[in-house]
Each structure stands twice: as structure tokens, then as C-alpha cells.
Write a structure and sequence with these properties.
mainly alpha; Arc Repressor Mutant, subunit A; globular
């Protein structure tokens, strides 16, 4: 389970006195706790599933990439480097990212399995991709590729 992996990684980083990793993993765990609390209901007090954790991690990477761009634009390389270091730590917990050819193959498969014919069917294709390939691809890029494939 990804949650256990995060807790073990925190302990390992603390033992190794790797304060950069400790800080980044604590940020991940704090965000995870926030997501868990938001997902609680009267009947369920369990934490969110791994798919939701992967989505959260991708969101954290996206935020940090945006921050890096702003820091570099603002001539703050020290802060940009800190964000880049956090990205490296967060990426350790994501599955291997698919290469471009694998993404195109997955898109073609999702279009075929959903029976999509036009851009109107894009939502079903994207839902199929997210269900099958959570954490393995950049869905913003995949969305553009699906739209292009369905437009032609």
C-alpha cells in the first residue's frame, strides 16, 4: 500500500538524516491527511485509496512545477531548486511514467474500447484512461492527444 510506503520512506530518511527528503515526505503526509479528512463520511473513517493518493501526488508535482516557473521568472533560483528537489522526492512514489509511444497506444485502445467516434465521446475515453492508467501519464497531455485523435 502506498500509505505504508510513505511512512517507511519517512523513517528511512530520518535514519539517514536526509532532511530534504524528510521535509518533502512530511509535506506529502500532511497533504494526505488533509485529503483523508476531506473524504471522511459518517459511515467511513478509512483513508483514501491508492488511486486517489497517486492523483494527489501528481497534483503536488503540478503545483511545484508552476512554482518553479514563477521562481525562475522572479530570479529566485534558490527557491526553484528547493521545489525541484521536492519534485524528485514526490516522483519516487509514482509508478513509472509511460513513454510517448505507450501513451499513444493506450489512447488508441481507450478510444476503441469506448467506441468513441467524435469529440463528444471524449469524456468516456478520458475516464477509461484515468481508471486504467492512474499515475502513469500526464492527463493534460493525454487529453490534448485524445482530442486530436477524435477530431481527425
Amino acid at each position: 500500500m502506498l500509505r505504508d510506503k510513505l511512512n517507511e520512506a519517512l523513517k528511512d530518511a530520518m535514519r539517514a538524516r536526509d532532511m530534504g527528503s524528510v521535509s518533502a515526505i512530511r509535506l506529502i503526509l500532511a497533504k494526505l491527511k488533509e485529503v483523508d479528512i476531506a473524504a471522511r463520511t459518517e459511515t467511513s473513517r478509512e483513508g483514501v485509496a491508492d488511486e486517489r493518493i497517486l492523483s494527489m501526488l501528481q497534483g503536488m508535482i503540478k503545483q511545484r512545477n508552476e512554482s518553479v516557473a514563477l521562481y525562475e521568472k522572479g530570479n529566485r533560483p534558490d527557491l526553484a531548486d528547493k521545489e525541484k528537489a521536492e519534485i524528485v522526492v514526490i516522483e519516487r512514489f509514482l509508478p513509472q511514467q509511460m513513454d510517448e509511444a505507450a501513451v499513444q497506444a493506450a489512447i488508441a485502445d481507450a478510444i476503441a474500447s469506448a467506441g468513441a467516434k467524435s469529440v463528444k465521446d471524449m469524456g468516456g475515453v478520458m475516464a477509461a484512461l484515468k481508471a486504467k492508467h492512474a499515475g502513469q501519464m500526464d492527463f493534460a497531455k493525454a487529453s490534448a492527444a485524445v482530442k486530436k485523435a477524435l477530431s481527425s
